[in-house]
Amino acid sequence: MRVVVLVNRYVPEYNAGSEVTMHRLARALAGAGHEVEVVVTWHLSRHGYHLDGIPVHQVSERDADDRIVQLSPDVILTQYDEIARAAWLRAQYGIPWVQLIHKDDENSRAALRLSAALSVFNTHWIAETFADHPGRSLVVHPPVNADEHRTRPGNATTLVNLIPDKGVEVFYALADRFPGRAFLGVVGGYGRQDIRTDRPNLRIHPHGPAMREVWGQTRVVLMPSLHESYGLVAVEAMVSGIPVIAHPTPGLREALGPGGLFADRNDLDAWAAALAALDAADRYEAASRYALARAREITAENTAELAAFVSAVESVIEDRQ
């Protein structure tokens, strides 16, 4: 089976959760013995490259249709802005497409009105939001390879992606409230980054795919996110037993589970109290044990979901034949 992944952004230049997830799904298909190639219509800093053995073609939007037809895919795997192109290619050339749905917005609802062969929701709560969708679907949580993230935690309190929607103001306010504590701000893959270097207890880590380096400097992860359809960063951190304090978005509640640590992003005192509570050795140890156990649950779930995903994509081809 030949699969073309059609996206407008891709790793390693754009390491947001959706793009990381797409690459991990592409790896799962390649690992099952299928031919997988990626067509990227944006971020044209390279002419092409290979990532984990998968060819990545960077083309202009004008040339994307011709390149995809030349690759002669049995199925297209896509998300976000390129769903419309996949629908057009289906109408013109009969190529079925599989779409990833990451958000509970009107763009997702519009995508679900199209004739995708399969819709893949990234969480149960997103799937439940679109429970009236009549088409074929399944849930695949963003997969995490524990071996790529597992390390010995460090001592910093960390926020990944320094933008308002991720709670950067909460992060800097906590750095001011705890001047004797180390804070680490990680530059994100999208959004206007609010980088401040005027605090002696705060370091800035550059954007990049090597998140194990971040976890090796981190003791606690903060996620005061306004929107978070899942919480891939949280799961990656928990692999190393790093506790996560989060705003209770539906996605973060699903990722962290019933024992997660939550505080309202608008209540700075609650965040300060949650962070200070983890200074007690017994509280931190309990939170760390929970993080490890939750990460093991999720990675086991990932294995089953990836197998179901590969099988579902293969069945799309069988149905076409």
UniProtKB/TrEMBL annotation:
Listed Gene3D superfamilies: Glycogen Phosphorylase B
Superkingdom, taxonomy of origin: Bacteria
UniProt cross-references to SUPFAM superfamilies, sorted A to Z: UDP-Glycosyltransferase/glycogen phosphorylase (SSF53756)
Pfam families given in the database record: Glyco_trans_1_4
Keywords on record: Glycosyltransferase, Transferase
Keyword Metal-binding annotated: no
GO molecular function: glycosyltransferase activity
Keyword Glycosyltransferase in record: yes
PANTHER family assigned: D-INOSITOL 3-PHOSPHATE GLYCOSYLTRANSFERASE, GLYCOSYLTRANSFERASE
Protein name: Glycosyltransferase involved in cell wall bisynthesis
Organism: Allokutzneria albata (Kibdelosporangium albatum)
